[in-house]
Amino acid sequence: MGLYKKFVNQTRKPEGVLGKLMVNGMNGGHAKMADWGMSFLPRLTPGDIVDIGCGGGRNAGELAKRYQNSHVIAIDYSSVSVEKASVYNRKWIEEGRMLVKQGDVSQLRIPSGKFDLATAFETIYFWPGLERCFSEVFKVLKPGGAFLIVNESDGTDETSLKFQKIIEGMRCYTAYEIDEALKNAGFTDVQVNHHENKPWISVLARKGV
Question: Could you tell me the domains of the chain?
Fold first, then answer.
């Protein structure tokens, strides 16, 4: 495997030196997309938030800033990402408002029915089965809780489909496929928003009361 291919494959699970380089670029590289996606969050006063696939931790930090009375758990299955996110969010951790931990979305080891908001930024491409993983998210949300998914790819753009061919385990999903998997996992009131001139999508789903 060539160096470039080795590097882009770090997108899935950053490890070692190349993984650290990848994570270092995630926070800035995805910031505009993440902020655009967060603009579709409804008016909320969440007490407990979980950010799944937190990468370098920037978005978990933005959620902590946005919701001043919240507690955020940031989860990633890469130890490199957990280390970076912990350093990035040291302020919130020291204030007792954030916990960064290693974990697997297919088996979330966090309390069921506890969270008001779950988020997933630029990560579901690598989840091992959407419906199974969405069911895990559904389980940990409170009734009425919201789940926000933000992707750079709408599953049809040529650039992302090119990366799908070279990154092991990557799958670019269309809005329809995401909507269907969410509803099969139990979510209702799924709302999809497309960026006006980029292939970005923001999907907001609710757990029924």
Answer: 3-35+45-206 (3.40.50.150)
